[in-house]
Amino acid sequence: MPSYSRHDLADLSAFAAICRRGSFRLAATELGVSTSALSHALRNLEARLGVKLLNRTTRSVAPTEAGSRLAAQLDQSFGEIGEALSELGRYRSGPLGGLRINVPRDASRLLLSPVLARYLEDYPGVKIEVVVDNNMVDIVKAGFDAGMRFGDTVPQDMVCTPLTPPLRWVVVGAPAYLGRHGTPRKPEDLLRHACIRLRLGDQTMYRWELGQGPQAHAIDVPGALIVNETDMALEAALDGIGLAYCLERCAEPHLRAGRLRRVLDEWSPAGAPLVMYYPSRRQLAPALSRLIEAIRGANGLPGAIDA
């Protein structure tokens, strides 16, 4: 297949306009150029192609046989391009098309699940693929439109929109465990307790963060059980295996029911919010912006965002 440049494309568009209008003057007016510039462009195009495309006199212009065949094919091709551009307008006018998001397990349960049914009902033209993964991934390289993570873990070259207020982290234990082993009163007491340890997505062991400012502690807690997600840590705490450290929102149902109790409550820190992050703020897809607004609204934040 012969190669062509952007100059060829512009000149082919000019040739199609001349054939459509049957006049250099009318084609030049349509394209916003002078007739001499249009004539020069056509001479260059014929020279590059090595084929005469137009027969012209001072009174008229008509395509040659080769020019007629080319003009017919260009009409079809430019028509298809026009249809493709018109199709893009559907994506500008409202949520439509596919949306692929990478989220950690806690965010999928706390933020996505509560809004998905209503969102998909409101925007039937959207299809969402959610990949639940606690590992940090390069969302652009992996083909995702966006990801969710805690705001202090997102790469600096990404745009972040908070989905929640700052989130509180708590240490919790079952009443039976606390009855057998006692209740820790200060962070150092955790070193004498069975703790359910947490391995992060980058394979490092998480150090429990307690307190804030000058009183902040990051403790490498002891414990026989290591997990990599919150639900299993809470199940282990409910079974009396040890103390768990998690988002307060994850533990709330068990705390309300009395199955778990907060300990070291005065040391529970407020951490970074969960955020939606993506490569650029420019021309944010309506499907993504509406999902962000739905999640923010469900979490007590103003729904509208600057897209």
From TrEMBL:
GO terms for biological process: DNA-templated transcription. One of its GO terms (molecular function) is sequence-specific DNA binding. The keyword Nucleus does not apply. Pfam families: HTH_1, LysR_substrate. The keyword Transcription regulation applies. Keywords: DNA-binding, Transcription, Transcription regulation. Coiled coil: none annotated. Residues 7-64 form the HTH lysR-type domain. PROSITE patterns: HTH_LYSR. Belongs to the LysR transcriptional regulatory family. PANTHER family: HTH-TYPE TRANSCRIPTIONAL REGULATOR (PTHR30537), HTH-TYPE TRANSCRIPTIONAL REGULATOR PGRR (PTHR30537:SF1). This is HTH-type transcriptional regulator PgrR. It comes from Achromobacter insuavis. The gene is pgrR_7.
